[in-house]
C-alpha cells in the first residue's frame, strides 16, 4: 500500500515536472520568428540586474560618451495588435513600429524632420505634393526602398478590401488622393481639393514593403505581419506572445548605425507589478502615473521625464441629455464658473507639473492654438447668477465614471463637491470601461449628463472638426454652432496661412464662449528613464510612441 | 467502460452547444462595441461601417452566432477581432504556459494538502487543527493579486532571489530560467489551491474516522498515524480525484489574476485582453475550451473513481 502511494506521488511529481518542461520548451515557440541575424554585436541577454551591474561599472569609467551596445527594455501595457503600420492604431503597436519602420517625415512641436523623404513640395495651387525619397534606402532584408513601395502602400490603404483604418485620411468627399510614381525616388500626390492638413496626414502613413506584401490577398491577416520587414533603425528579432518583442540594431540604417544593440518591448499588464520590475532593474523605461512618481524618483536610478502629449483632458456636458437644461449655454457656463481649474488639476494629476491649465479646445502643439480665450475662472457668485438667469434650480446631474480610473474618479468627486456649493446635486455612476465607452460616445445616449474624457488630435486644427461641428462624427457633446460650422469648413480649405490662423483663432473663441466642454488641462505623459542610458534629447520625446528616433538612444 | 466513455463524450456535444449559446448571448448583452477598438477620430462613419461589415458585426446576433457555429463545426474558431490571428492558434500557443503553471501548482497543492488535511482532521479542535484552519482561511480570503505583489516586493525587490515577472529572461532559452520565473506565480497559485484542498480533505478525514473500518483498526491496536496514512488516506484520495476533475477548468480560467500580475503569457492573460477589447471570438474560444476541459476532467475523475473503487463501477 505504502509503495503504491509512493508510486502515485512520484507520478504526480514527474507529471508536474514534465508539464513545466513542456511549458518551457513549447511556450510560444510558434511566434518565435527570428529574422536572419546578421548583427554580430547583438546582446539581448544583457538585461535586468546583470545589465545594471555592467552599466554601473561603465558609467564610472566614462558617463559622457555614448557607447555602442546594450539592450533597452521598454515596458508596454499589452501585446501589439499588429506590427504593420497601415493597421496599427493602438499605442503599443505604434510605439514598436516607430523603431521598426522609418516614417517619411515627422512633425514634433512644429518642427519637421525628414526621414525616408528628402523633401515634400506642394505645387503653387496646393493640389499636388511631390515627395522625393532619399537615395540608397533599403528594407531590413536588403531590398531597395523606392517610390514603388510608397505607391503600393497608399494603394493598399485606399483599397477597401484591405480594411486599413487610414483610408479615410486619403478620401475627400467621395474623391480619393491620386498617388503616382514619377521615378524611382519621386512620388506625386494629387489632391481632389485643397487640404492644408495633408502634410499632417502624411506624417501618420508609413511605407510598407511591396516585395513582401504584393501577393497577399488580405494583408491584415497575413502571416508576414508576424515577422515584419521594416526600414527603421531596429529590425525585428523575436516576439514571444504575452512576453516581449525584441528588435535588434539595423546596421545599414540610412541615418547611420544606431548605438543600442537592441530594444525590447516588454509586456507588463499590471501597473503595480511593472513598477516593482522597474525598481528591480528588469525594465528601463516606463510610463508613470503621477501618484507613483515620488516612489520611483526615490530610487535615484531614474530620470523622470514629463512631456506634453498634445492631449486635452476635459469635463464634457452631454447637451443631448434628457434633462434638457445642458442645452442652455448659461448652465454650462455656470458649471464652469463653479469649478477651479487649479484644484481640478491638483486633484486629478497630483501636481501642476503634470498638466498645464487648458482654456482652448486646441492643444498647444496644434497650429494656430491660443489659450487666450474665455476661461470661466472660478466665480461661485457668477455661477449662481447664471443658473438663476437660466431659471434652473434643484438641478440633479448624472456623472458617469470609469471604475478604477484614478483621474476620472478624482475629478468626479471634486466636481460633486464643488457643484454642491452652487446648489447642483451630482450623482456618480460607476461603469466598467466598455460600458463607459459605449455610453459616453453613443450619439443617442440621453441618460447621463457629465463625463471626463481626453483626446489627442495631432498638429492640424482641421482634425478637431469631427469633435465640434454640428454633424461631427465624434461630437459626443452634441454641440452645434452654425457660425463655427462655417468657419471649420473655411479653415479646412484655406491655403493662406494668415487667414487660416485667423479662422481657427475665431473658432477657439466661439467654442470657449459656448462651453460645450470644460477644458481641464493639457496633460503631460510622465516617463521614467533609466539613468544608465542617454540620448533622450536627441531621440526626442514624442506623444504616444515615447521616442521619435530611438536610434539616438545609447548606453552611457 | 467504453460505453460510459462514449456516452459521456457524446453528452459533451449538447453541453458545449448550450455553453456557446449562453456565452454568445452574454457577450452580446454586455455593453461596449468591439469596433470602438479600431476607431480613430479621423475615421469617417462610412469607414467604421465598412469595418463593422467586414467583420460581420452588422448582422443580427443570431446570424452572427450561426456563422460562428458553422465555422466552429469545421474546426475554425475564427479570428481575433483585435490582432486578426486565428483563435485556436492563440489558445494552443498560450496553453503550455498555463498548463505548466496550473499543473504544477495543483500537484504541489495536492501533495501538501493531504498530510495537512489528514492531521487537521485527526486532531480536530486541537492546536494543529486550529493552526491549519487559520492558515487555510487566510489562504482562501487573501486576494491573489495582493499576495502576488507582496511576494514580488519581498523576493524580487528586497532580497533579489527571484525575477519579478515574465516567464523567462529576455532572449534566454533554458528550463532552469523558466522554473526560476515560475516559482513566485506558482507559489501564489499553490496557496490558493492548497487552502481549499486542505479544508476538503480535513472534512473528509473527520467523516472517515467515524467509519467502522477505522474503529476495527483501533480495536486491533493499530496506532493513529498508521491508520491515518495507511487506511484513511486511500478513502480521502477519492474526493481529491473529484477536486482534480473540477480543477481542470482552472487550466483556463484559474490563473487569470496570477498571470496578469506576473505577466505570465498564458490563457488567463489572453482572456483578460480579450474581455477588455470585447474580442468575442477569443472569449468564445476560451470559454468553450474551458468548458471542454471541465467536462473531460470530470469524465477522467469518474473513470479514476471507478478504477480506485470498484463498488462505484458496479453501481453504474
UniProtKB/TrEMBL annotation, chain A:
- Hey, what's the signal peptide range on this chain? 1-30
InterPro entries listed in its UniProt record? Peptide/Ni-bd, SBP_5, SBP_5_dom
Q: Where is this region: Disordered?
A: 29-66
Q: Name one GO molecular function term.
A: peptide transmembrane transporter activity
Keyword Signal included in the entry's annotation: yes
Q: Where is the Solute-binding protein family domain?
A: 116-474
Q: Does the keyword Signal apply?
A: yes
The processes (GO biological process) annotated in the record are: peptide transport
- Which superkingdom heads the taxonomic lineage of this protein's source? Bacteria
User: Which residue stretches does the UniProt record annotate as biased composition, category Low complexity?
Assistant: 29-43
Give any Gene Ontology cellular component: ATP-binding cassette (ABC) transporter complex
Kindly state which keywords UniProt assigns to this record, in alphabetical order: Signal
What Gene3D superfamilies is this protein classified in?
A: Dipeptide-binding Protein, Domain 1 (3.90.76.10), Dipeptide-binding Protein, Domain 3 (3.10.105.10), Periplasmic binding protein-like II (3.40.190.10)
Question: Which regions are flagged for Polar residues bias?
Answer: 44-64
PANTHER family reported in the protein's UniProt record:
OLIGOPEPTIDE ABC TRANSPORTER,SUBSTRATE-BINDING PROTEIN, PERIPLASMIC BINDING COMPONENT OF ABC TRANSPORTER
Protein name (record): ABC transporter substrate-binding protein
Source organism of this protein record: Paenibacillus albus
TrEMBL record, chain B:
Q: Which residue intervals define the domain ABC transmembrane type-1 in the entry?
A: 95-305
Give the CDD domains listed for this entry.
TM_PBP2 (cd06261)
A Gene Ontology term for the protein's cellular component: plasma membrane
**UniProt KW Cell membrane keyword:** yes
Task: Enumerate the subcellular locations listed in this protein's record, separating them with semicolons.
Answer: Cell membrane
Location (main, coarse): membrane
Q: Name its GO BP terms in alphabetical order.
A: transmembrane transport
Q: Which Pfam families match?
A: BPD_transp_1, BPD_transp_1_N
Which keywords accompany this UniProt record? Cell membrane, Membrane, Transmembrane, Transmembrane helix, Transport
Q: Where are the transmembrane segments?
A: 12-30, 97-122, 134-156, 182-200, 236-262, 282-308
Q: Which family does it belong to?
A: Belongs to the binding-protein-dependent transport system permease family.
Task: Identify the PANTHER family for this entry.
Answer: DIPEPTIDE TRANSPORT SYSTEM PERMEASE PROTEIN DPPB-RELATED (PTHR43163)
Protein name as annotated: ABC transporter permease
List the source organism.
Paenibacillus albus
